[in-house]
């Protein structure tokens, strides 16, 4: 796989990063990444994945944009209210970077359709606002050895971790019991934008091999106090999802 003259110019600044170069950019061009949930996290993550040159981005969301999404879901403009999120996002990402492929999947992920919806990808990004779907995605990713980058937000707070099956804890190891669902999550738009940017950094690191991924660690961001910290998270040897790896 080669890079076109326009790609060499488009990605020039990031290819200057040590260890990246043309070969790293080719890896990104060959990569397939699924963004599951095109909300505050998913919109921001998708933009930076497209800007970085991920070759194929799969956008998964069953919903339509609402007016109260506009404070954080930055791929939605006023004219897009009432339209399917995945389809709107696809159109705008292709306009931003016509050198990549974007697929819109209007669907809700279940245990029965996860394979058909997500498919064979290199990384899955968590853009969900509910725990039930996250656990379904985690099981799928563990079963197919796909890295899963979790992020969650509330108000000015966020958390994230990178799950690489067999190399660290899975999502069920970290959350052995289902946390309670929240009907209406409080959120400032900048909070998911911050966490989504970190998810994209992790994705690029996994694909190119640059740096140390956030495996076995959970990052917590406290925007009220502007404090960031990480804590160690460990595998559960009796985890019902990943103990056999």
Secondary structure: elements and pairs:
Layout: H1 5-10, H2 12-15, H3 21-30, E1 32-36, H4 40-52, E2 56-60, H5 85-96, E3 101-105, H6 114-118, E4 123-126, H7 131-143, E5 148-154, E6 157-163, H8 171-174, H9 190-208, E7 217-222, E8 227-232
Parallel strand pairs: 1-2, 1-4, 2-3, 4-5
Antiparallel strand pairs: 5-6, 6-7, 7-8
What is Rg?
17 Å
Helix/strand order, N-terminal first: HHHEHEHEHEHEEHHEE
Secondary structure: number of strands: 8
CATH fold name: Rossmann fold
Number of helices: 9
Low-confidence runs:
none
Q: Percentage of helical residues?
A: 25-40%
Q: Quick one: overall form?
A: globular
Termini Cα gap: 33 Å
- Examine the secondary-structure arrangement and name the CATH architecture: 3-Layer(aba) Sandwich
Strand content: 15-25%
Largest sheet: 8 strands, mixed
Classified by CATH, the class is Alpha Beta
Average pLDDT value? 97
Outline the structure in words.
It is a single chain. The protein is α/β, with parallel strands linked by helices and 245 residues long. It has a single domain (31-232), classed as Rossmann fold (3-Layer(aba) Sandwich), CATH 3.40.50. It contains 9 helices and 8 strands. The chain has helices at residues 5-10, 12-15, 21-30, 40-52, 85-96, 114-118, 131-143, 171-174, 190-208; strands at 32-36, 56-60, 101-105, 123-126, 148-154, 157-163, 217-222, 227-232. The protein has an 8-stranded mixed beta sheet, with helices on both faces.
Question: What would the keywords be for this entry?
Answer:
245 residues; alpha/beta; Rossmann fold; eight-stranded mixed sheet; 9 helices; globular
């Amino acid at each position: 796989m080669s890079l076109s003259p326009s790609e060499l110019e488009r990605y020039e600044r990031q290819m200057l990063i040590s260890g990246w170069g043309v070969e790293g950019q080719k890896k990104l061009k060959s990569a397939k990444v699924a963004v599951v949930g095109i909300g505050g996290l998913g919109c921001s993550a998708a933009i930076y994945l497209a800007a970085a040159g991920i070759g194929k981005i799969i956008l998964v969301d069953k919903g339509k944009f609402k007016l109260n999404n506009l404070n954080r879901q930055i791929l939605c403009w006023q004219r897009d209210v009432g339209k399917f999120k995945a389809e709107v996002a696809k159109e705008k990402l292709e306009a931003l970077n016509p050198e990549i492929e974007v697929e819109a999947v209007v669907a809700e992920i279940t245990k029965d359709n996860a394979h058909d919806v997500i498919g064979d990808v290199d990384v899955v990004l968590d853009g969900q606002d509910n725990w039930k779907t996250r656990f379904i995605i985690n099981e799928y990713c563990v079963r197919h050895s796909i890295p899963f980058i979790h992020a969650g937000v509330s108000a000015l707070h966020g958390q994230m971790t990178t799950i690489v099956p067999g190399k660290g804890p899975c999502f069920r190891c970290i959350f052995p019991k289902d946390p309670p669902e929240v009907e209406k999550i409080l959120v400032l738009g900048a909070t998911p934008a911050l966490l989504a940017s970190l998810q994209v950094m992790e994705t690029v690191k996994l694909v190119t091999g640059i740096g140390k991924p956030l495996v076995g660690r959970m990052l917590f961001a406290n925007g009220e106090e502007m404090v960031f910290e990480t804590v160690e998270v460990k595998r559960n040897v009796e985890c019902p999802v990943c103990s056999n790896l």
